[in-house]
Amino acid sequence: MNGGLPVRPALLGKHGFKSLRQKHVQDELKMDKIMLIQEIRSAHQTWVAAQAHFDFALDKDQIDYTIYALEAAEKRFEMLIKQAKKLGISLIDSDRLMEV
């Protein structure tokens, strides 16, 4: 007990109490990382689907469209991967973060 108030272990930091604001910011950062991981997985699925569509394109218009879609999907996937690297998210982290 601290001054008659119960100590909440989840809020204790290295030097005593963490502020509720700091915990809130950490929770928001974790949620942002989870959302980014979900976006990366979705972008990868879109990229794989675009590759499959390209394989089955028959005429010139379909081929042109599938090339455009494939390039767009690839660029989006690469952009999200770069963003994850900037945040220090790895595949190992993604599995741990998704266990929420």
Provide an overview of this structure:
There is one protein chain. Strands 1-2 form a two-stranded antiparallel sheet. It is elongated. 70% of the residues lie in helices and 4% in strands. The chain is mainly α. The chain has one domain.
In spatial order, strands of the major sheet run 1-2
Largest sheet, if any? 2 strands, antiparallel
Q: What is the overall number of helices?
A: 3
Number of strands: 2
> What structural category characterises the helix and strand content?
mainly alpha
Measured as a percent range, the helix fraction is over 70%
If you compute it from the alpha carbons, what radius of gyration comes out, rounded to the nearest whole angstrom? 22 Å
Strand content bin: under 5%
- What are the low-pLDDT stretches, counting only 5+ consecutive residues below 50? none
Distance between the termini: 30 Å
InterPro entries: DUF2508
Organism: Paenibacillus pectinilyticus
Protein name: DUF2508 domain-containing protein
